[in-house]
Amino acid sequence: MFFFEMHANQSPAPVTTTGFCQDAGHIQSDYVIVIHPGSSTLRIGRATDTHPAAIPHVIARRHKQPGQTYSCDKWLLRDGLNKPESNEQRQNGLKMVDQAIWSKKMSNGTRRIPAVPEQARAYNKQMRPAILDHDSGVKWTNTSHNEEHFVGEEALFVNPADRYDIHYPIRRGQLNIHGGPGGSVTAVLTDLEVIWSHVIQKFLEIQLKDLKYYRCILLIPDIYNRQHVKEMVNMILMKIGFSGVIVHQESVCAVYGSGLTSACVVDVGDQKTSICCVEDGISHRNTRLCLAYGGADVTRCFFWLMQRAGFPYRECQLTNTLDCLLLQQLKETYTHLDQDICGLQDHEFQVRHPDSPALLYQMRLGDEKLQAPMALFYPATFGIVGQKMTHLQHRSQGDPEDPHDEHYLLATQSKQDQSSKASADRKGMPKPSMYDDVRSQGMDPERGHMMESELGPSQADGMGHSNDGEETSASLFSRKTMVSQFEGKALGLDKAILHSIDCCTSDDTKKKMYSSILVIGGGLMFHKAQPFLQHRILNKMPPSFRRMVENVEVITRPKDMDPRVIVWKGGAVLSCLDTTQELWIYQREWQRFGVRMLRERAAFVW
After folding, report:
1. Which of 176, 274, 403, 490 could pair covalently with 389 via S-S, beta carbons 3.0-4.6 A apart?
2. Nearest of 544, 493, 462, 545 to residue 389 by alpha carbon
3. Domain 86-142+295-390: assigned CATH number
4. What pTM was estimated for this model as a whole?
């Protein structure tokens, strides 16, 4: 079962109709709601709350027509697992994992002796559950009043026999758009609106009609879909009814939340892993990577390994939501990255499902508990075939509602260029290149983005974009080669971190990043994860940097904080900064100018 942290509603102080303090230019933090929408968990709360409320980001919707087929979005299952080569890939990945386990000595200097699955299987095969109680004490959600929908934990405990569909509106950090029931953009946004509105009323105890006095900080992934962000902002201002919104990137907020100034932010979530280098509050675009795997893939991998070792709960199914919750709990309880734990150990766990007795199982496990989390470093072990596993930030496709976007700027430059060429032809003067023209505007001709506004003047200077067209073209070519080399490949977590840091523009920045690798999210909260990752980074970093960097530091719990709430905390910190006040997008401005406000007000290059 889930346990949520509830916070007493603070008594509202008198505010003006815009929600500002009477005696200051700052908005009161009581009247700022920070929303961090994750793939599996929604974190939401006032900027003044110690912790956000954490709710499963899921909705159950009642069938509109009788006889409608049951539809349930996948949680631990995903596309690409049942291809003919999936099992072969999984076995190859596992061989690499076992080789890595065997090759590393324990802290006392002795070699690790691998535990053979057959030894555990013989024991587990003969185990039968003991009945603890004839009533598990767990109940299905009561649907007798025919409610339109249920949200969060109530949605997870809706009986599949009842006429409800289960939807997760966000998968792998993006809106969960798909061809099945409830997979249209409109349906997904409606689900988000219902979930967020319900949580604001139930957990924050704020009536929707009062949201005109509140503002919202929306935290988005570093590699974001512009259309999705635009639609979410529209929903926040025009549908839910907040008076203003700030949109900011997760990695920058993670740095704010952890009290650092610069870091290579590694966000291991349930569905995806994001990596990005942040320097002085700026997320470096070239360093952004999104890996299409996370904690849910480790859970599924652990289940497969336990099955190989004769997992005694034989009825367990990845299509059953309650079994998935149990597997998540087993992963969080037993898996680790401690090379010193070896040999077979006995464990026990309980299965408590509605309308069933409470059962106690005994099981014996060996290296499965170490192999599963190591799959993050050898992602072939997940057995995912034919899926794009690495995503990078691409240029905007443009938006018809934003006539002055980067495409307009490039087109304008192109027209100016053509007219100057024509006049040069008439006068017999040398023809300026478009690259010169674009560079004169401080733009990167490949990306069509204002470089200095993204990197700051000092970093832009360090990029080597001089007026020498050949040099610029060469640097663009090398970046394109790097992109094509990595895009789509399933990079291991350590290699992805090294690649992200290597994309920084100067050695000084790279040194900063090696000295501050910040790991956040809930997907790497394994015992001894910090020294394990630190050791792998040290072993694989370029020798030149090994000499230059005094201390490679992996930070997994800054200020002893829960790594799952650091991004949300950063959003709360953001609301108090002086520089934040000019980032607000107001409802009336959005009505008039729409998506252009994001280009004008976003704290990052839109």
Report:
1. 490
2. 493
3. 3.90.640.10
4. 0.84
